[in-house]
Amino acid sequence: MPELPEVETTRSGIAPHLQGQRVDNVIIRQRQLRWPIPASLKRHLVGQSIVSVGRRGKYILLETLAGWGILHLGMSGILRVVDASLPPAKHDHVDIVLCNDQCLRLTDPRRFGALLWTKTDPLEHKLLANLGPEPLTAAFSTDYLYQRAQGRKQAIKAFIMDSHVVVGVGNIYANEALFKSGIHPHRAAGKVSKARFESLVQNIKAILAAAIKQGGTTLKDFRKADGKPGYFKQQLQVYGRGGEPCVTCGNPLKESRLGQRSTVYCGACQR
DNA sequence: ATGCGGACCTGTTAGC
DNA sequence: TGCTAACAGGTCCGCA
User: How confident is the model over A63-117, as pLDDT tens digits?
Assistant: First the structure.
C-alpha cells in the first residue's frame, strides 16, 4: 500500500487525534507481523500520553515520555482512528485505545508491517540509523545522489528504491520519476549523467510533493486516516499502464521485471 | 562493499 | 464454474 506520500498522509491524518491523548489500553490480536510485536509494548505504552506523531522514511513514530512506538505499514498496512467500540474486522491486529474511547487501529492483511518499541532515540534504532535522506529536504540533492551512484552497476530504478540511498521512493513513484526524467530503468546507476540526475532529483521531489498534496495514491485498498481514498492515481503516467500508449510519443509502454518488481517504461522516451 | 534472489503473508485477478 | 499461478504499494537477510 504505502509509499512515502501515503505514509505522510496517514501520519498527518492521525496526528491530531493522538496528540496529547493518554493511552488507556493496548489490544493485540495478532502479534506475528514482520517481527513479533514485543510483549513489553503494552506495559510501556499504557498510561503514557502521545507527545507527537512523527515520521522518518516510511516509519511512523509515536513519541511518549517513556519511549517511542515505531510503526511500519509494510505493503498492506492501514492505520485509522476509530471508535474503540467498533468491532474489529479480520485483519485488525492492534488497537491502541485512548482515554477518550477512540483507538488507533492497525489493519494489515499481509502482515509485512511492524510495531516495535524503543526506549531511546528512534533515529538510532537499527532499522532507522542507516536510512538515506528525506527526499523533500535539501540533503537529497543532485550532488548527493550523483556521488553515491558513482561506480554502481545496479539498475537506476533499484538504486533509487533503496531506502539506504533515499527514503520513500517506492515502486510507483520510481517508475513515474524515471519516465519524467527520460531515464531507462535498467540503466546502471553509475552510467547516468549528472545532468540527468539533476532532472531525476527534481522530478522525485515534485512527484512526491504533488502526491502528498493530493492525499496519496489509492490503487486498491489505501485509505487516508479518514477512510477516504487518495486522488493521485489519475496522474500516473506509466505505472499500471504497460502496453498502453506513451503519453509523450504514443508508442506502447514496455513492461519488465526488475528485482521482482513490475517496471513500466517507454523504450523510445527513456534511454 | 555490492548485487541479487528469497523470504515474510494474504487476497485478488488472470488464465486455463 | 473452479482450480492454479502470478502478482500486489516493502525491505531485511543471507549468500556469492
Answer: 999 999 999 999 999 999 999 999 999 999 999 999 999 999 999 999 999 999 9
CATH architecture of A4-124: Alpha-Beta Barrel (3.20)
Whether A216 sits with its Cβ under 7 A from any strand C atom: the answer reads yes
Domain limits, CATH 3.20.190.10, in chain A: 4-124
Alpha carbon distance A90, A31 (integer Å):
14
How far in angstroms lies nucleotide C2's C1' from the CA of residue A117? 45
**Nucleotide showing the shortest C1' distance to residue A108 CA:** B10
CATH 1.10.8.50 for the A142-265 domain, yes or no: yes
Q: What cell does A65 get?
A: 515520555
Question: Which segments of chain A belong to CATH 1.10.8.50?
Answer: 142-265
pLDDT block averages, 10 residues each, chain A of length 271 = 88 96 98 97 98 98 98 97 97 98 97 98 97 98 98 98 97 97 98 98 96 73 58 84 96 95 97 97
DSSP state of A231: S
Judge whether A71 and A59 are in contact, CB under 8 Å: yes
Degrees (nearest 5) of the Cα angle A205, A126, A202? 10
